[in-house]
Automatic annotation (TrEMBL):
Pfam families: MPAB_Lcp_cat
Protein name per UniProt: DUF2236 domain-containing protein
Disordered: annotated segments: 278-299
InterPro entries assigned to the protein according to its UniProt record, in alphabetical order: MPAB/Lcp_cat_dom
Domain ER-bound oxygenase mpaB/mpaB'/Rubber oxygenase catalytic, first and last residues per copy: 51-281
Length: 299
């Protein structure tokens, strides 16, 4: 028994380091310290729902769901396929996204604004034409609105299903409102401020959404061919299954993905709870120690 505790601590440390390295990159520790230790006002106070959601292990499932849902807009998917490098550098893209979420959620107001300014600058350079000859630009406010709505819906649904402390209805509305602060800074006009407005906004895009060849190829890459070591592919497969299971049926159908009704859905959800609890355990400081191991991005 005497060797059990040190062995568990070592396992916990190794798992936490592996996860953090994947989502935050080699500069992760320095970025984390800058985000949390730099003094100054923040966009969001410590008690805001956005901090609870983005600091929880459910973000791993929510992030995958967001990528799948966002891909259903042909213009958004065309921009990703042509400019994001998600195939050649998927971890770099994840790390940039997770750092943006961490900085805007937990960082100083100055750093949050700088992160937004950088993203807007990048968006301004992303333009092109789809295979069908339709022009797109990443800075298009309507397109930004879809990316935002899909992201908010995915993060919130994953948190309500797998989060350690799901929000009540007022908290859910407040989370959507918190995210509207970031969306407005990014150039989204009149983003939704509550759950009802979010649902209405997603419905407003439904007629434009479809599973293009690029979207289905991206789904296969994200779900079936992640660049991961063999030991991590099993747990990842269960995270991916839960991301798919949490999509609306129309989104699964558009992407050619299976649905998980009845007992199958219950079984898949059980794996999601087990995995998020495991990630939460690994990323939390062991009893009697100090320090941060939050799963949310570089936070």
């Amino acid at each position: 028994m005497n060797g059990t505790a040190p062995a568990l601590t070592e396992l916990r440390t190794r798992v936490a380091a592996g996860i953090f390295r994947r989502v935050a990159g080699p500069a992760g520790p320095a970025t984390r310290d800058r985000i949390h230790l730099t003094p100054g006002p923040r966009w969001f106070a410590p008690d805001r729902p956005i901090r609870r959601v983005h600091g929880d292990a459910s973000m791993f499932i929510g992030g995958l769901r967001a990528l799948l849902l966002q891909s259903l807009h042909p213009l958004a998917m065309a921009a990703v396929a042509a400019h994001s490098g998600y195939r050649g550098d998927p971890w770099g893209r994840l790390q940039r996204t997770s750092t943006f979420l961490a900085v805007t959620t937990f960082g100083t107001a100055d750093d949050a604004q700088a992160a937004v300014d950088l993203v807007r600058s990048v968006h301004g350079r992303v333009t092109g034409t789809t295979g069908e000859g339709v022009p797109y630009r990443a800075s298009d406010p309507w397109l930004l609105g879809w990316v935002h709505a899909a992201e908010v819906d995915s993060f919130l649904r994953a948190h309500q299903r797998f989060g350690a402390a799901p929000l009540d209805r007022a908290g859910c509305d407040a989370y959507v409102g918190d995210m509207a602060r970031v969306a407005t800074a990014l150039g989204v006009p009149d983003p939704p401020h509550d759950v009802r407005g979010l649902a209405e906004r997603i419905d407003a895009y439904r007629s434009e959404l479809r599973g293009t060849t690029e979207a289905r190829e991206a789904a296969r890459f994200v779900l079936l061919r992640p660049p991961l070591p063999l030991v991590a592919r099993g747990p990842y497969a269960f995270l991916a299954a839960n991301a798919v299971a949490s999509l609306p049926p129309w989104a699964c159908a558009a992407l050619g993905l299976p649905s998980f009704p009845g007992p199958a859905g219950t079984a898949v959800r059980a794996t999601g709870h087990a995995l998020t609890r495991g990630i939460r355990w690994a990323m939390s400081p062991p009893p009697g120690t100090t320090g941060r191991r939050d799963p949310g991005a570089a936070s």
